[in-house]
Design brief:
Blueprint lengths: L4 E9 L12 E9 L12 E9 L14 E8 L4 E6 L4 E4 L6 E2 L11 H4 L2 H13 L7 E4 L7 H11 L2 E6 L2 H9 L5 E4 L6 H8 L4 E6 L4 H9 E9 L18 H5 L3 E4 L9 H13 L7 E5 L4 H7 L8 E5 L4
Parallel strand pairs: 8-9, 8-11, 9-10, 11-12, 12-13, 14-15
Antiparallel strand pairs: 1-2, 3-4, 3-6, 3-15, 4-5, 5-7
Helix pairs in contact: 2-3, 5-6
The protein binds NADP nicotinamide-adenine-dinucleotide phosphate.
NADP nicotinamide-adenine-dinucleotide phosphate binds next to helix 2 and strand 15.
GO molecular function: 2-alkenal reductase [NAD(P)H] activity
Protein name: Enoyl reductase (ER) domain-containing protein
Keywords: Oxidoreductase
Length: 328
């Protein structure tokens, strides 16, 4: 039988990116691709997939030089399993090491109504960062920055369900409303409207912060350090305010780590994938009972991926930025 040939749209990096990335640093190209796995060598266990949806991750900018690997939901060709994991910004991909990709649970509502995201990388990041790094106790006071983002909105809901007092910061009034009215945060504030972040945190945490889930870094981290309680924990998940700076801002209040005996730990979700079954045990019942809300921002078509990625750095996205490459 003749091998099927398809056109494979993909995004390439035109220029090395320093500072804030621009759409013009990327280009969408189309090449022909035979739907056949390469023979032998490193490809003995490889699979061919059709990419369906991917999520834009702000740290992708640091990975663009190696061809935009990003979080994708895809269908194995020709077998048809739905999987998630990292691949490239293209319509079809050959994955040489499929063991690092995960099958999507069959008994969930159909893709794509958030359940795949919840049970994928953002959910796993929120779970590992909050429960493994922060070791929460009921009643503790939790602060989350970039709280309406993919990870933050879940950390907040996990923390509320666990019995914590939860406050989030975000960059627009609309996002602040979402945090309070849809995700059930106790309080939320627009960090862009605060002249003095230290004073803002004191307003919401008069007795200090036990747990800080760090997504942004910079001035927010400095203000948080001043407001942490003794034996507080800080999970350093991301530092989006620093990713595009030529010169990273310094942190001035690190002495608080000593005087308040704070534990501050960075983590990468990939180190926690062995906990994936434990995470699903926790989250699947909550999803089925409709106890978790999730908001995402959908861009249609791979050609809109560069603009969707750039939008993350100005906060244009509301919730997880998803790009639909194909619906089936
Ligand atoms: N450690 C890991 O394994 C891991 C895994 C996944 C993600 N991450 C990191 O976790 C963080 C959150 O990821 P996500 O996927 O939830 O984010 P996201 O949904 O992509 O949201 C990004 C949001 O960050 C905010 N932001 C952008 N620039 C900012 C700035 N200069 N200062 C403060 N806020 C800014 C914007 O919201 P506003 O309108 O609120 O400003 C933007 O919408 C990121 O730093 C990401 O790199 C880490």
């Amino acid at each position: 039988m003749a091998e099927e040939e398809v056109s494979n749209k993909h995004v390439i990096l035109k220029n090395y990116v320093s500072g804030f990335p621009k759409e013009s640093d990327m280009e969408v190209k189309t090449t022909a691709l035979k739907l056949k796995l390469p023979d032998g060598g490193d490809y003995s266990g490889a699979i061919l997939v059709k990419n369906l949806y991917f999520t834009c991750n702000c740290s992708a900018k640091d990975r663009v030089t190696i061809g935009f690997p990003d979080l994708f939901f895809f269908r194995r060709h020709p077998i048809g399993d739905l999987l998630w994991g990292l691949t490239r910004w293209e319509e079809y991909s050959v994955i040489a090491d499929p063991e690092t990709r995960f099958k999507i649970h069959n008994n969930l509502p159909p893709l794509f109504n958030c359940s795949a995201l919840l049970t994928g990388m953002p959910g796993m990041t929120a779970y590992a960062g909050f429960f493994e790094i922060c070791s929460p106790k009921k009643g503790e006071r939790v602060f989350i920055s970039a709280a309406s983002g993919a990870v933050g909105q879940l950390v907040g809901q996990f923390a509320k369900a666990f019995g914590c007092y939860v406050v989030g910061s975000a960059g627009t009034k609309e996002k602040v409303d979402l945090l309070k009215n849809k995700f059930g945060f106790d309080e939320a504030f627009n960090y862009k409207e605060e002249q003095d972040l230290n004073a803002a945190l004191k307003r919401y945490f008069p007795d200090g912060i036990d747990i800080y889930f760090e997504n942004v870094g910079g001035k927010m981290l400095d203000a948080v350090l001043l407001n942490m309680r003794v034996h507080g924990r800080i999970a350093v998940c991301g530092l989006i305010s620093q990713y595009n700076l030529e010169q990273h801002e310094g942190i001035h209040n690190l002495f608080c780590l000593i005087t308040k005996r704070i534990k501050m730990e960075g983590f990468l979700v990939f180190d926690y994938y062995h906990l994936y079954p434990k995470f699903l045990d926790m989250v699947l019942p909550q999803i089925k009972e409709g106890k978790i809300a999730y908001v995402e921002d959908i861009a249609e078509g791979l050609e809109n991926a560069p603009s969707a990625l750039i939008g993350l750095f100005s906060g244009r996205n509301i919730g997880k930025q998803v790009v639909v490459v194909a619906r089936e």
